[in-house]
Structure formats: C-alpha cells, structure tokens
C-alpha cells in the first residue's frame, strides 16, 4: 500500500502541479478534500488547491518543474520533501515578472483514500521567495 500511495503522490506532483492537468486533478483529488494548510481566508477545499496551481504558480512561473527529493509512507499517509522550480516570467501574488529563477522548498503530508488525496498538511518557502522577489 505504501508504494502505491507514494506513486499516487509522484503522479500528482508531475501531472497536476508540473503539468497543470485538470483531468488528472479530478481523478486524484477527492470531492471532500481538505487542505489543512490553506492560508487564512482562502478556500481549504479542492478548488482552493486547484487555484494555487492554475491561477498562482503557472501564470507566474514558466518552465515549472517539481523534483521529489524524499518520500516516506506509512498507513494511508505520504510525506514528501520536494522542490518546485521555475522562472518568474509572469505576475505572481501581484509581483510583476523579474525573470529571476525561483525555487520553492516544500514538505507536505497527504492522506490517501481509494487512490485520491483527501487531506493535506504542509509547509513551504513561498512566503520568503515572494519577499525576495519584492525586494528585487
């Protein structure tokens, strides 16, 4: 089960985050998904998750890639340490394109049920990356 769940998370990272594939998102994210790490005031459901990839990361970063650095799985949870990289070529969080390389470090935990994401907890370096882009 752990190997299957790790493969589901790797597929999500490649197909949904890297490729922004809505069909794969529909397949891999449960209707009752809860993002426990959603920012205050943001949608903690599945559409809020899609919004992050489709309306924040992809418009702001070209050549977006996800590198899975480590994965640990136990029972129905998978913990992943990963890095999202790209070039700041569009507006992200109100910051005009700088052309700079961007690297966002992430550690997340996902609970899988019936082959789908049902819960997420995570921490990432996006706030510090945005602060660095703002400061020039």
From TrEMBL:
Gene3D superfamilies, per the entry: 3.10.450.50
InterPro entries documented for this protein: Cyclase_SnoaL-like, NTF2-like_dom_sf
Top-rank lineage group of the source organism: Bacteria
Alphabetical list of PANTHER family matching this protein: ESTER CYCLASE, POLYKETIDE CYCLASE SNOAL-LIKE DOMAIN
Name assigned to this protein: Ester cyclase
Biological source species: Pseudomonas edaphica
């Amino acid at each position: 089960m752990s190997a299957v769940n790790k493969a589901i998370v790797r597929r999500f990272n490649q197909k949904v985050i890297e490729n922004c594939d809505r069909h794969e998102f529909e397949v891999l994210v449960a209707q009752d998904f809860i993002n426990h790490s959603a920012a205050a005031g943001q949608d903690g459901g599945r559409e809020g998750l899609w919004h992050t990839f489709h309306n924040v990361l992809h418009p702001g970063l070209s050549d977006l890639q996800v590198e899975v650095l480590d994965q640990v799985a136990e029972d129905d949870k998978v913990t992943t340490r990963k890095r999202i990289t790209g070039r700041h070529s569009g507006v992200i969080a109100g910051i005009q394109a700088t052309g700079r390389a961007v690297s966002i470090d992430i550690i997340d935990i996902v609970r899988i049920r019936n082959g789908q994401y049902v819960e997420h907890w995570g921490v990432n370096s996006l706030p510090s990356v945005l602060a660095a882009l703002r400061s020039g």
